[in-house]
Design goal:
45% helix
Amino acid sequence: MERTGLVITVASQKGGAGKTTVATGLAAAWRAEGLKVIIVDADPQDTASSWAAKSPEGQGVDVVSVEQGRLLIRQVPKLAAEYDRVIIDTPPRLGAEQRGAVLVADAVVIPTCCGGFEGDALGPTLDYVETIAASHPGVPPRILLVLNKMSRTLLCDALRADVAETETTVLKTEIPQRVRIPEAQSAGQTVLDYDPKDPAAKTFVRLAQEVESHAFTISPENHDSETEADGHAA
């Protein structure tokens, strides 16, 4: 079965960094384009699964729970043969789930802010993801940072300068602090359904477009390399 869908992994070592917010926002933006989308909930906290269970009829996104790295490597390519977009919401720790999610991804999106505890967690997350990506048996995923809660500050400028010397890209689209985002999540929705006129709704549409522009489609021979990648997920 040939894999044709795009696989996007959302990763961070820090809990509360906005992984599920980004994952569900991307899913809603792509679903609004008429694409077939599924979220793979690899986080034992089951945040994405709990959110989906509250979704109003007709507004939900398919969500499946897969919490083992080896299972991710085996199952995600099969899902990518059925869905246009597969989004993996990873747990807030570095381990087998993160490793498997990186190995099957076309792009890894890392939500972060420019300072504080979230900023401190970026270094270990980025180092880990870059190491796993470098060991990829096929074409490694693109690594993308999306800034959360912050705008133009000296810390953000310093972060962009540091990342500019690596293969990692800082996305132009930033996730704003908007009360409509958590309100929508509490209702089992995203802001695109809850309040499509809110500026945050347009933000997620732009983010989805930007992620697509940086992600690339892996060639068929690399799609079929899950068995080789499986050995890297132990």
